[in-house]
């Protein structure tokens, strides 16, 4: 069996005793434990000196963690700059927010080259390399330029935008050439895959052979052949069901329930990011109280949103906007014994969150664009199957392609989201159970193990040329 080499911007903290936090970390670790291999990426540390260091290696059984620090300049240009101020807004259809600068584009390429340079000596000829996310699109081409012929796959965790959006990026052709250096390119949904294929056909005159939903599309472009396919990421469903059952009786859950004193709960959990549609979500809750005043003092909305990317101006702006909005709505509707919105800028552990999800009667997940959105899946898996809550889900989350038994909404349509909340809060038990069961069938058949294995299996079959 070939070794797997996983490359991602961040490497999950190395702590054997603790369970890795995110779904991705769980999947990656499970895959690496099976095959043995390397997890390679940024350490998360920024150093002031410019000089490039050697990777720091930690061996845990058959698994090696190899991490590199970033200089302040690399961090500003590659991470804060091109990745988070150009590609992130672009891929989330926010063309008006993109920063265009040759300096950050060059920094992005430079760091990808530096990472590739440092990985090459660690690679064996029959390794499989699996690169993750928008920070590292040029990484495969950088490896190939250094003589690496290994099987290489890339997985994009964000949406892939329609070609009409992508062309707003200067040198978009170069970025797609870099993407085409891989043997396998994975997206979350058929929608993303179709956008990629449309770009190949419209902008490059490339050839696309559609092999059906399970087979993906063979792409012929830049003199190479690669497979592009949708692999919707998922959660560790059975594990989370078990965690939620235990969490239902935990101290945090009890405290949350007691604080509600019989009121019902709507929950939102997101990184504080402008792609998550939080201002519209707050307004939709306000609209619910206006249109259906019977919920005043009867329903609370808990929004957990830990700040992220705080060096980027748009993230400072959205944080301020949400503080003002929650303050205004609470000032308008609060009673001496009821706060309509509980807005928290902090994160919670997985177990605590599982208990919160289970307590909530409605999961409100309304991103304006999202590659997948794992919170939607986690909310469903944490419900009590005998008395489940209702998921209200944005049609612009990748998860909506699979979880079509949720109440699907357009997050820009604030009145319609308020109506969906009303429908969720008044839904009969049989309908709630039926919708929940349908979504659980999908989450059980397509869990994180399925995602990992189907991707690695497709990569094993490379090259496709
Ligand atoms: P994110 O944009 O971070 O991920 P999402 O998939 O919803 O979005 O969340 C990732 C994880 O972080 C989830 O497991 C969630 O429980 C956890 N999380 C979020 N908020 C939290 C909080 N307040 N406290 C504790 N944990 C919290 C990107 C893409 C998504 C894609 C994932 C995986 O933007 O579209 O689904 O990668 O591919």
TrEMBL record:
Gene Ontology molecular-function annotations: alpha,alpha-trehalose-phosphate synthase (UDP-forming) activity
Entry EC number(s): 2.4.1.15
Keyword hit for Methyltransferase: no
Pathway: Glycan biosynthesis; trehalose biosynthesis
Assigned keywords, A-Z: Glycosyltransferase, Transferase
PANTHER family: BCDNA.GH08860, TREHALOSE-6-PHOSPHATE SYNTHASE
Record's function text: Probably involved in the osmoprotection via the biosynthesis of trehalose. Catalyzes the transfer of glucose from UDP-alpha-D-glucose (UDP-Glc) to D-glucose 6-phosphate (Glc-6-P) to form trehalose-6-phosphate. Acts with retention of the anomeric configuration of the UDP-sugar donor.
UniProt-recorded name of the protein: Trehalose-6-phosphate synthase
